[in-house]
Structure formats: structure tokens, C-alpha cells
Amino acid sequence: MPNNNCHSTSYISTATVPRILVRLILYALLWYTLAGSDMLSWIIGVPAVLLTTSLSFKLTASSRVNISFTGIIRFIPFFLYQSFHGAADVMRRALSFRQLLNPGLVSYTTLLPEGSARIFFINSISLLPGTLSAKLHGNKVVIHTLDLGLPVWRNIQHLEYQVALLMGCTTGKRQEEL
């Protein structure tokens, strides 16, 4: 039986001051990036940053996941490459004179545990070329693909592996890999 633990811990205590400050700074930087240097934008920005910080703690109150720094370093280039590759693939298909579609559904069983890692994985499926997560039931994911000829299964396994590294999970080996 694979050990698919993500080193998550139950979130019981209140948030610490350093964690609050880090989130406040990150959300303020995000606001500044989106709204620019106009000081009047902070009339809305300050309440938005405070509300977002508060909600981020409430929405993650059920569990915390230790995100691996090494996983982040590996996931960012993977994410950027897949995002651009996926966008280029969809654009190529949309602008093509020939019909380059062979749509269908692919069923996939994830080895990631319930919680943040699995949700992040499901939401990240759409960055893969021509894919969209359509349904999640337990550990079964149904993925819509624009082309059944694409290596969807391999791409999803690679994404699952990258998410496991990012979240500090171990998924074990798949039955077909043994």
C-alpha cells in the first residue's frame, strides 16, 4: 500500500503574526501589480487586501500542507511550459483550416490524498494541452480532451508527480508501472 501522506497537519491554533504579515505583504504586492501606483486605488485596495488575507486563513483552516521549496522550484518552469504549450496548442487548433479535433473523455485515478494536493492537481489539469477536468468523484477524475491522440495519460501522470513534489507527497508506484 503506497504511503500517500502529504505531511499535512491539522490546523487548530490561530494564525501566527509572521504568517499574517507574509500574506498581507503578498496580497498588497498583488494589488499593486494589478492596480498600479495610483494611491487612490488603495481606498479599495486596503479593505480588499485585509479581506483576502482573512479569507485565506478561513479557507485553509481545515488543513495545512507543507509546500516543498524544491517542489516550487521544479513546478514553476513546468507550469510555465505547460501553460504556454497548452495555449499555443489550442490557438493552433482554433486557427487551423482543417478540423484538428478528436474530443473525448479520459478517466484517471489519482494517487494523491484528499485535500489540498488533490484539489491543486484537479485545478492544474486545465494547463495541460487540450485538457479540462470535467468531474471528480473520490479519487477518480474525468478529463475532457480536445484530442484523444494526445499523450493525455502520460501528461496527467507527470502533472500528478509534479504536484506530489510540490506538496511534499509520496504517491508510490502505479500498478501498471510495477
UniProtKB/TrEMBL annotation:
**Pfam hit, one:** MNHE
* Keyword Transmembrane helix assigned: yes
Q: What is the recorded membrane topology of this protein? A: Multi-pass membrane protein
Q: Keyword Cell inner membrane on this protein?
A: no
The record's keywords, sorted A to Z, are: Cell membrane, Membrane, Transmembrane, Transmembrane helix
Please state the protein's primary subcellular location.
Answer: membrane
Q: Where in the cell is it found?
A: Cell membrane
| TM spans (from-to) | 20-45, 65-84
Q: According to its record, what are the GO cellular component terms?
A: plasma membrane
Q: What GO MF terms are annotated? A: monoatomic cation transmembrane transporter activity
State the InterPro entries in the record. Answer: Cation_antiport_E
| PANTHER family documented for this protein | NA(+)/H(+) ANTIPORTER SUBUNIT E1, NA(+)_H(+) ANTIPORTER SUBUNIT E1
Family stated for the protein in its record: Belongs to the CPA3 antiporters (TC 2.A.63) subunit E family.
Q: What is this protein called?
A: Multisubunit Na+/H+ antiporter, MnhE subunit
Task: Give the species.
Answer: Desulfocapsa sulfexigens (strain DSM 10523 / SB164P1)
**Source species taxonomy:** Bacteria, Pseudomonadati, Thermodesulfobacteriota, Desulfobulbia, Desulfobulbales
